[in-house]
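Possible race condition, two jobs.
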Amino acid sequence: MKKAVCLMSGGMDSTTLAYVAKDMGYEILALHLNYGQRTEKKERECAKKIADGLHAVDFVEISLDYFTKFGASSLTDMNIEVEEGLLGKADHPNTYVPFRNANLISIATSYCESRDGDAVFIGVQSGDHTGYPDCTPKFIEAMQNVISIGTQTYKPIRLMTPFVWLNKTQILKEGLRLHVPYEDTWSCYSENDEACGVCSSCLGRLKAFDNLGIEDPIPYAVK
C-alpha cells in the first residue's frame, strides 16, 4: 500500500486532508509537530484522536522549541497578543510564524524518506486570505523542487497540497463528504478550552460552517 506522511495539527484543514489521503488509498503516517504554539495541548489531543480514528500506522511527535526562542509571532511568543482576525487581511498578520512551513515540510520529508513513503500531505490553503507566503502555490512548487533534488529515493516523494487553491468552505464540503469528525478538531490560535471566536482562524472556520448552514460542533467563547 502507498504510504503518506500527513502533517496533523489537529485543525480543520489538516484533519480533512488526512481523510482525503486515506480516501485516496494511502496508509497514514501521522506527524504532529509541537513548535511552542499556544494551543499545543489541545492540538496534540485532537491530532492523536484523529490519527487513531484513521488507524494511522504510526504517530510521531517532534518538538521544535527553537521557534519560541526566535519569537516574532503571537503563536510562539506569549508576550505578543493574538490579534483579532480580519478575513482577507493581506499584510503581515502577527500569527505568521517565520518560515514555519519550510521547517515542517523538511521534517515530514525526512520522515517520509526514512519510511520509504510516497507522499507528504500538508493542508496549506491560500483561498481565504493572504499574508502567509509559505502557504502559496509558488512556495509549494519550490519545496517540491527541493524535495526532488535533495532526497535519495528510487521513487519520487510527492508534496501533496490539494487544498492550496481552495477556501475553507470548499474544504469543509469535502470533509462533510468524507464524514470528518469536526467535533474532534481545533482551529483557535489562542485558547485550549473554548475557542475565542475572534482570531482569524476562528473567523475563517465559523464563516465556512455558516456558509453551509451548519452549526460548528466545537465550543466558542464568542460566536
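Job #2 (started ~2 s after job #1):
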Amino acid sequence: MTQDDSKTDQGPLDRFRADRQERAASGLMAVACLLLLAGAGLLVLMLIKLAIPTLFADTEFLAYGRLRPAAMLMLVYGFGGVLTQATAYYLIPRLVGVRMRHQQAALLGGLGYAGLVTLGALVVVFRGPSGPELIEFPPIIDWPIAALLLLPPFLVTSMLRHRTEEGAFVSILYVLGAVWWYPALHITGSIPGLAGVGPFLQTGLVANGMLWLAFPAAALGGAYYVLVKESGRPLFSGPLARAGFWTLAGTALLATPTRFLGGPAPNWTETVAVAAAMGLMIAALAVMTNLGQTLSGDWETARKSVVIRYLMVGATAYTLVTVLTGMSGFRSVAAVLGLTTWHEGLIIGTTLVAVPALGMAFVFHAFPRTTGRDLAGEEAAERGLRLLTWGGGITAAAFLVAGLVSGITWNWASASGSRLNAGAGFSDTFAEVDLMFTVGALASVVALVGIALMVWTTLGTYMSGAARPVEMLVPVEPRDDE
C-alpha cells in the first residue's frame, strides 16, 4: 500500500514512535487474547457441568444457567468486541492512508469496555443473568457499555473523512460494519418495555445479530487483509467479496425466525427464514471461495505460513457452521433439529473454533508489526491450532450429533407413540446422548489448552520475541501537480 512505509531501523526511538502510533491496536489485541482465554475457560466449565450435573451441585455460582451466559458474554462481547476495536484501529489507518488520532482515548475506551464486560460477566456468575440471551448484563452496566461501544465507530468514521486512499477495500466494509453493528444491536437489546415484540425482537434479533453478524464481521474483514499481505497475492475477486458482505448484512438479521420455527411465530416468518438462510450460506461460500481461489496454485505458501493456516481453518469452520445454520432455516430440517442441542453445537463451533481461529490469524499477523518483535514460539502456535481444531471441532460435532439423535428420536417416538415427548420422556431422550456431552466436555479441555498456547505465544512475542523492523504508517501527501 502506498500509505505504508516499513522502517528498517530498530533503534529505541523508532520502536517508541511505533508503539505510540499503534498503542491502541497492540494493547487491545493483548486484552482480546486474555478475554478469549477467560471466555473459553468458562465455556469448558459449562460443558463439564452439563456432562456432570451433580458436580458442585451446592455451589450456586457454578450452575449451568450462570456459566453459559457468562461464557457467551466473555466470548462474544469480550473477545469479539475488543478484537473488533483492535482490528479497526490497525486496519483502517492502513487502508485509508490516515494516521489514527486519539490513541490514548481509544486505548482507555477499549480497556474500560473490557473491564465492564468482565465485571458484567462476574455479576452474571454470582448474581444470575438480568435478561435473555446475550442481553444478560445488569442495567447499571448496560448503558456504560453502550456508551463505550459508540467510541470506536466515531473514531473510525472520522478517519474515513480524511482518507487519502480512494479505493473501497472490502476489509473496510466488514470492519466498519462490525464497529457500528455492536453498539446498534446492544442498544436495541437494552431498550426496556418492548411488550409483545420483546421476546422476538430482543431475544431473537439481538442474539442472532451478535452471533452471526457483528461477532464474525471484523474477523472476516481481517482475513481478507491478512491473506493478501501474507501471501503477496491479489484478492481473487473484489466484487465477490463485496457481494458476500452485502448478502451477510442483508440476511443475518432476517434469519432470526430460524430460531422460532415450529413455535407461535406467524407463518410468513417461515418464508423469510428460508430466504435469509440461503443468503447466509451464499455469504459464507463467497468468503471461502474468495480465500481459496486467492491461494489457488500457491498452496505451498499456506503450508509455510502459520498465519494462513489459522486463517484457512477459521474460514473453513465458519463456512461449515454457517451452511449448517442456513440449513436449519428449512422447515423440514427444523422439524427434526429444532429445540435440540444442534443449535448449541453451531454456537460452539462459531465461538470456540471459527472466530477464534480467524481472530488469532489477524493477531499473529498484526501484533508483531505493532510491537517490533517477531512471533515468539511458532511451534507453540502451530500446536495450539491443532488442539483448537481437534478439540473445538469434536466438541461442536458432539453437540450436533446429540441434537440430530435427539430430534430423530423425538420424531420417531411421536410417530410410533412409544414415548411422550414431555416430562420423563423428554428427559429420557437427553439421557440417551449423555455420552456425547461427556465427549464434548473432554474435547473442550483440549481446545482450551490450544487457546492457552495461542495466548502464551502472543504475550511472549512482546516479552521475548526477536527484534524485527517496525512498521510505521507514513501517509503519502498529494503533490501540488497531481
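Residues 1-18, 478-482 have pLDDT under 50 and may be disordered.
Logs attached separately.
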